[in-house]
Amino acid sequence: MEKKHILVTIPLSQEQRDALEQEGTQVRFRLGEALPSGRGGTLPFPQLLPAEPVTEEDMAWAEAILGNVAPELLKKAPRLEWMQTSSAGVEPYLHPGLLRPETALTNATGAYGLAISEHMLGMLLMVFKKLELYRDAQRREDWASQGQVRTLLGSVVLVMGLGDIGGDFARLCKAMGAYVIGLRRTPGPKPAFVDELHLTGELDSLLPRADVVAVTLPGTPRTRGMLSRERIALMKEGAVLLNVGRGYVVDTEALCDALESGRLGGAGLDVTDPEPLPPGHRLWQLPTAVVTPHVSGGYHLWETHERIAAIFAENLRRFLHGEPLKNQVDPASGYRRRDDST
Amino acid sequence: MEKKHILVTIPLSQEQRDALEQEGTQVRFRLGEALPSGRGGTLPFPQLLPAEPVTEEDMAWAEAILGNVAPELLKKAPRLEWMQTSSAGVEPYLHPGLLRPETALTNATGAYGLAISEHMLGMLLMVFKKLELYRDAQRREDWASQGQVRTLLGSVVLVMGLGDIGGDFARLCKAMGAYVIGLRRTPGPKPAFVDELHLTGELDSLLPRADVVAVTLPGTPRTRGMLSRERIALMKEGAVLLNVGRGYVVDTEALCDALESGRLGGAGLDVTDPEPLPPGHRLWQLPTAVVTPHVSGGYHLWETHERIAAIFAENLRRFLHGEPLKNQVDPASGYRRRDDST
């Protein structure tokens, strides 16, 4: 049997490389793109082996790519049968003319839930306990109460998007005693980790009930601007907005207005619009806005990197055996196929 | 039957007052001490009724006190049969000569677990996710990764003190996938919310195993200085220390040295020694120290206040019916009697 040409473009340890050197493969280890723009990029995990950047010759050779490459390079890959991203978001690869129709596209859903859901809970507890204000006070060496705080126990948390990330966050909130409302695009059975399940079309009637609105939606034409000024106005007085999906799902100016006026109680934002947030943008200095620079995912957590490597190995095994791949993305919608939970 | 004279010294709503106006009581509603020094004091919950400060005449009249009063006032209370604090800590009332030997002392254990355990988890996630550094970066308008972060999943959390607060924190950590080691003073069955249970004497062998050491111990002569310089040196490289018990349980200077050198990964401190932390103290400016001004408990959370009022009502019912009181404190040890879990 002809050996399949596999191009792997993330830094890996020897053990992780070995897991990809399967019977029937010829593997090249290269360095591709960092995770999509705004992510912190690859970090120096000590065990990782060095590698050279991807070349056009690599692209001409590759039948499968595991890891992200610069999207325009895909035009140089006439033999490509399968593209497996190391990211959950795949927008850069959806533009027409990049991937051939017969090329399968799979993402790294499942790798990021742990890291991002914990980051979300950290931002939420900061805002609920005023820890962002206490941090500012600490810098001023000011020992003074900032007043009343809030609890997750009994709080209503609306989770928009019940994929890997939204699902894990819903589980954490439920474990802390919150009442969790899940929102998703397509009908399906109610998972045990939400108290209510609704469809996206019901959003307007749910926003006034939620103490916390958590956005874990991918970036698609349908999600762009979904939390518009009108919808932010529907949110409950004092509610908290979390966003780890894409910045442009939320109307930033409307959010800033609502935080500035005190109508919203706070926000935890790992993604912004514009992104990166430019110096001088008013969001930086709003006291109850907690802003992190798109770092909740990426390779910031070692476990995320390990999970990505495990997804690569499992999908490569399936690819070589002609089995259906996991995490297939429908290029038309930008959502995963089959397990259509978001 | 002679009506019992009950002095209530915390602000209450009409509904909460009604719950204390029981058959067989004559109740005076006054304002006593705020919670023990360092607490944020009473906050303006909107529904609370106004009250006058406690007088010496009130003390002479009282047969039971629900709520904290200035300790020296207890010398003016010859008829006092029962003192119920609104705080979990009771050190100020343990000094010889304040309470008569026949006066029962009960505390508000059970009221604070929710508020303080969530505050602890918030501080821990801040340090694990570098959110304190991201907050500082936000103030500088700096969009840049702070590097690798950590997860609670699989982390070893050593909880010192398994009372109300330590128990609730252990439950939260376990729900997030941590491996929880509980440490307590006296033998007893292992609660379901810890993976291992040990006695205080085993502390030195446990410290090197823990990614997180969480101190929820009360202030007693035995706990003073328990986390000495020698014991801090036994902690694992990169470990995180949380303290919500009493500041003097930890050697502050040794902790500062360990944070400054990077040997410890961070700290979340709601109590300090000295307390309040004076301006110019180096702890204020250590980047990985998260300091809050003894606010995790107090009345900062509405639910805490409601739980205190409920403890008052239940113990008052027991007092009037001659039943054993809940949360009795042994003046010799400073610990609760019977349910001796810390």
Report on this structure.
- Two copies of one chain form a homodimer.
- Chain A is α/β, with parallel strands linked by helices.
- In chain A, 26% of the residues lie in helices and 15% in strands.
- The first copy, chain A, is built from nine helices and 13 strands.
- The first copy, chain A, has helices at 14-20, 56-61, 113-128, 131-139, 164-175, 203-206, 229-234, 252-260, 302-320, and strands at 4-8, 25-31, 52-53, 64-66, 82-84, 104-106, 156-160, 179-184, 196-199, 212-215, 240-243, 266-269, 289-291.
- In chain A, the strands form two sheets. The first copy, chain A, has a seven-stranded parallel β-sheet with strand order 9-8-7-10-11-12-13, covered by helices on one side. In chain A, strands 3-2-1-4-5-6 form a six-stranded parallel β-sheet.
- In chain A, helix 3 crosses helix 5.
- The two termini of chain A are 39 Å apart.
Notable traits:
342 residues; seven-stranded parallel beta sheet; homodimer; 26% helix; alpha/beta
